[in-house]
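Team,

Forwarding the record for the chain on the shared tracking sheet. I've put the sequence and predicted structure together so nobody has to dig through attachments.
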Amino acid sequence: MLFPFAAAIRHLLLLPVVGVLLAGCQSSDHQWSLQSQASATSIDFIELTHMTDNIRLMSQGRLDIIAVSSGVITGGPDIYSAVKEGRIEMGNGWPNWWSGNHPAWAVMNAGPFEFMNIDASLMFFIAGEGTNLANELSRPDGIIWRPAWWPGMEFGLLSSQPINGLADLEGKRVRIGPGLPSEILAAASGAATIPLVPEEIKPALESGALDAVEWTTTAGAWDLGLGDSAQYAIVPAIWQPAVLSDFLINAAAFNELPEDLQAILMTAIQSYTLTTTAKAKVQDFAALEKFRAQGTQITTWSPEDIDIWRTKSEQIHQQYSDRDPFTGRLLAEKRRLKERYDDYYQVFGAYE
């Protein structure tokens, strides 16, 4: 039997331990929904669930974010509206999908002949003016914008019949995201462009409603099952050489979080950004090997086609610059970084 004083001391010593245990078991102070544009089997969605698990752990359950894959709550351009209206607290998608809210979203990703590598785009948004400019667009809608991850160069066009160049796309129905990529492909090829969301893509290709499909990178296309439906591919995806995904955060919900939870969320996002970018690109290596192993025939654009891509790209970029002052400023800022990037790597580029 303990003396009263000793019992009191033991009680005091146990209080912090009990407090930690209770904190780990307590109900969430803040419950959020995060609607992603990604399919459930993709590496970016799998890493998204790891991110939300880590947030739950680091916050001791005080911030509980439930991530759902494409189409569960909403999808496509409505993700932006859902975050804006507070139907969900976070969204994850692609900037060009938000172009209905402002034309500058259509050129937020690297378009043809802009940033040709992941690291150039990454520098623009993490160390340059990219994130500030994106938030100038999103702030009036009550949205905080952050880069999510970089798939880099997309796969190209997958099809069940051979496509050997731009001439073969005349009049064809092509799945591609909205905005600048879609406009340039249509202008260069004469194809009809259709912005289907992930769950609609494979059935449309198999039914013949689509002639060709663009869907993210080799790993993304493989995870979507396109290897079963498309025996041909033409590469590279000139329309999006350094594509990035983004996060949308409802500003009112974010401002309700105490400072420590805000810091945990932003730190977790930064970790997700770098980890997913690296892991996804390694998965692309493996996916390309799988496409080749099953006999997918891969061809490339001719120099003549690339000249057409370049001409149409310059024309449409100029139209965007002329149409809206903010869009012109965004494109000019990207060009400034590209010039410095190119100048540096002419001296310090790869020696192979």
